[in-house]
Amino acid sequence: MTAKVFIDGEVGTTGLQIRERLARRADIQLLSIAPEHRKDPAARAEIYAQADVAILCLPDDAAKESAALAEALPVRLIDASTAHRVHPDWAFGFPELSPAHRAAIVAAKRVSNPGCWSTCAIGLLAPLVSAGLIARNAALTISGVSGYSGGGKALIAEFEAGTAGNHFLYGLDHKHKHLPEIAAHAGLTAKPIFIPSVGHYAQGMIVQIPLHLPAGQNPAAYRAALESHYAGARFVRVVDPAEVGPRANPERLNGTNMMELSVHPGADGDRLVLLACLDNLGKGASGAAVQNLNLMLGMEEGAGL
């Protein structure tokens, strides 16, 4: 079986990475549109009509327009933007989150790819909320660091020109675009404080969530809940703090579609830090899109990854 796939926005960072992963596969035929027709609705509708799956690597507003353009066509969509991540008619493309999420992706006509930050945060929080270890209304703080490639072409250009500095925090208005999906898919009723940062390196991400434990809770229960939830998962694994090391390196999973989770308790057992590490261009973006594509097409889940 050969599937026809169109990457709408293939010249952006995520689109280029997806194309690179798919171009070497014999079971995928990549469709392309002439550069002069990329913004022509009629030309794009014509290529959507030829595709089995279209992957939208576009800004939010353009992704919504493309989804509307394809509405009456049989083409299935994967949206890498923020536009549809909490939309009830779109499957959330995090198959490890639950068997129901995996089944929804397999059957869906419309799948929304998770964000990189939210993949880490949800990956840590959802199993612990479900297990009752973290209250749905808990006052949580999430932070972390990402490579600058996650900021798109403009930010990449700033760092490569040396005008962005070495490190900065952002999201200080408490309106980060990933907050709605983190709260919705982690099962939270209280919005977390989320202040991420960007470092002067290309790709790789660590997210951290510090917790003070209620009396009677054991840090080991947190690791056990994560291990139970992700038992058998191919692209999410729970690792020992010793494997992370005394200096957690956000680049250690670059070039993979893997996410690693770890639980780091304090010596007194009354606090811990949850860590999630992934390649923001892998499991945090293009790798996740290819994984979802494989599931939608009934192909081997790790093909091209």
Describe the structure in brief.
The protein has helices at 13-23, 41-50, 60-69, 99-107, 116-130, 152-161, 179-186, 219-229, 241-244, 282-296; strands spanning 3-8, 28-31, 53-56, 76-79, 91-92, 110-112, 141-147, 167-169, 193-199, 205-212, 236-238, 259-265, 271-278.
List key phrases describing it.
305 residues, alpha/beta, Rossmann fold, Dihydrodipicolinate Reductase, domain 2, seven-stranded mixed β-sheet, six-stranded parallel β-sheet, 10 helices, globular
Annotate the secondary structure layout:
Elements: E1 3-8, H1 13-23, E2 28-31, H2 41-50, E3 53-56, H3 60-69, E4 76-79, E5 91-92, H4 99-107, E6 110-112, H5 116-130, E7 141-147, H6 152-161, E8 167-169, H7 179-186, E9 193-199, E10 205-212, H8 219-229, E11 236-238, H9 241-244, E12 259-265, E13 271-278, H10 282-296
Parallel strand pairs: 1-2, 1-3, 3-4, 4-6, 5-6, 7-9, 11-12
Antiparallel strand pairs: 7-10, 8-9, 10-13, 12-13
Helix pairs in contact: 1-10, 5-7
